[in-house]
Specification:
This protein has 79 residues and is mostly helical. It has helices spanning 2-22, 74-78. It contains two helices and no strands.
Amino acid sequence: MKIASVLAIVVAAVAIGFGVYMVDIDQTQEASLPNVDVNVEGGNLPEFSAEVGDIETGTEEITMEVPTITFESPEEDDS
């Protein structure tokens, strides 16, 4: 197994060597950003007209009867 891993490392090194030396990239022209002149003037927001329905809210005081509930625990029955 040691021979296989050494052989794999040698093959990988040779492949990387060929990849580095077989590809030659040369820059043929310098890059440059475009010349931009910006002139900004004030703008407008859009105007809207909307008709919506009327909603009237208010409060009213009412009195309600709430039922009374009594609970008897089983511990009270044993005494």
